[in-house]
Design goal:
The protein is α/β, with parallel strands linked by helices and about 260 residues long. The chain has 8 helices and 6 strands.
Length: about 260
């Protein structure tokens, strides 16, 4: 694979890019961005420094994923459980989110990315909802990669929301047909794109933390010890190369690793 401007000639990133099989890229990549606090603590910095540096990683991974031609990228930004963190840290996270949206909207447009926030967005404070809605409306006509940012998100809550939406529709329409997996999947937050082919978790933790519980049933999982603020283009390419080495079975016969299902 060659991509002008993606990486300097002779760099590690350029060498990794040459090894990527563009016909076997994941269509949908999901990322649990973990380790901001530990990154800061390891440098004897306040935790907020890790969150600020993590924004740089978001910028690089979003841009790289769009340039690679991925169909969707879903980033786990703030979970329902994260409300238990100190109030000052939560405030800082929301401020950084709003700042990211304001500063990056032009760049998102240049890459034809459609921005979408998923989760229980209605429970966020008004100023955050306003910024999210502006970014979603402004990019609604973009036809490139879909960037899902999971905020106030819980995999279990998503399934509950899907069932409530489905039950409401069935009650309204008097529908008594059996419910199947396909019908449930159509009511999930990410129903417009394929399930993730690859799930990356940074910081070395071996858990999925209530993220996309339904969608990652057959996702390949890649765990890296790298903290999120240090996770950049090179690490993304390494993860994709590892993905392309794997055989995806879906509980059945061995199948070559390829994007999509």
């Amino acid at each position: 694979m060659e991509m002008e401007g993606f990486a300097p000639s002779g760099s590690t990133e350029a060498e990794l890019l040459q090894r990527i099989d563009e016909g076997r890229l994941p269509r949908h990549l999901a990322v649990i961005m973990d380790g901001n606090g530990r990154w800061a603590e390891s440098r004897r910095l306040p935790r907020v420094a890790g969150h600020r540096e993590g924004i740089e990683s978001v910028r690089e991974i979003v841009e790289s994923s769009a340039l690679l031609g991925l169909e969707a990228l879903t980033l786990y930004a703030f979970s329902v459980e994260n409300w238990k963190r100190p109030r000052s840290e939560v405030r800082t996270l929301m401020t950084l989110l709003k700042r990211y949206l304001r500063r990056e909207l032009d760049r998102i447009h240049r890459h034809n990315i459609r921005f979408l926030a998923i989760g229980r967005i209605g429970e966020l404070e008004e100023s955050v909802r306003t910024e999210l809605q502006h970014a979603m409306s402004a990019t609604a006509s973009n036809t490139g990669m879909r960037l899902y940012v999971a905020l106030n998100y819980s995999g279990r809550a998503e399934i509950v929301d899907a069932f409530n939406l489905l039950l409401g529709e069935r009650k309204k329409n008097g529908d008594a047909a059996p419910v199947d997996e396909e019908l449930i999947a159509r009511h999930l937050y990410t129903s417009a794109v394929p399930d993730p082919d690859l799930l990356i978790r940074t910081s070395g933790e071996m858990r999925i933390s209530n993220f996309l519980l339904w969608q990652i049933a057959y996702s390949e999982i890649y765990i890296t010890p790298t903290y999120w603020p240090d996770f950049r283009r090179r690490h993304l390419l390494e993860a994709i190369l590892e993905f392309q080495k794997r055989d995806r079975r879906y509980g059945g016969l061995q199948a070559p690793c390829e994007g999509g299902r």
